[in-house]
Amino acid sequence: MRKISGMATVAEIQERLALYKAAEQAILEGGQSYRLGDLTLTRADLAMVREEIRALELRLAAARNNGRLSHSTVVFGGRR
């Protein structure tokens, strides 16, 4: 796999993204915390997991586009 200017490879980013999506699914299906006897365990914070998913999706897009993100220009209220 090809690394882009010190960034992780596309495959590495995809693997990490899959793990975060699995974590998000576990939180959504099983709740934020659960009990085992007298012990209460808390999964990762859903907002943090979703933030990391968004960041990884951006990194993946950049990695697939030679380190650049594509973008659009939006003009409000007139011409440019």
What is the strand and helix layout of this fold?
Blueprint: H1 10-30, E1 33-36, E2 39-42, H2 46-64
Antiparallel strand pairs: 1-2
Helix pairs in contact: 1-2
Commentary on this structure:
By secondary structure, the protein is mainly alpha-helical. The chain has a domain at 10-63. It is 50% helix and 10% strand. It is built from two helices and two strands; from the N terminus they run H-E-E-H. It has helices at residues 10-30, 46-64, and strands at residues 33-36, 39-42.
Number of strands: 2
SS strand fraction: 5-15%
The oligomeric state is: single chain
In sequence order, what are the helices and strands, one letter per element? HEEH
Choose one word for the global shape: elongated
Give the N-to-C terminal Cα separation.
Answer: 41 Å
* Average predicted confidence as pLDDT: 83
Helix content: 40-55%
Kindly name the structural category.
mainly alpha
Order of strands in the sheet with most strands: 1-2
Number of helices: 2
- What's the story with the biggest beta sheet? 2 strands, antiparallel
Provide the gyration radius in Å.
18 Å
Low confidence ranges: 1-5
Summary tags:
single chain; 80 residues; mainly alpha; two-stranded antiparallel ribbon; 2 helices; 2 strands; elongated
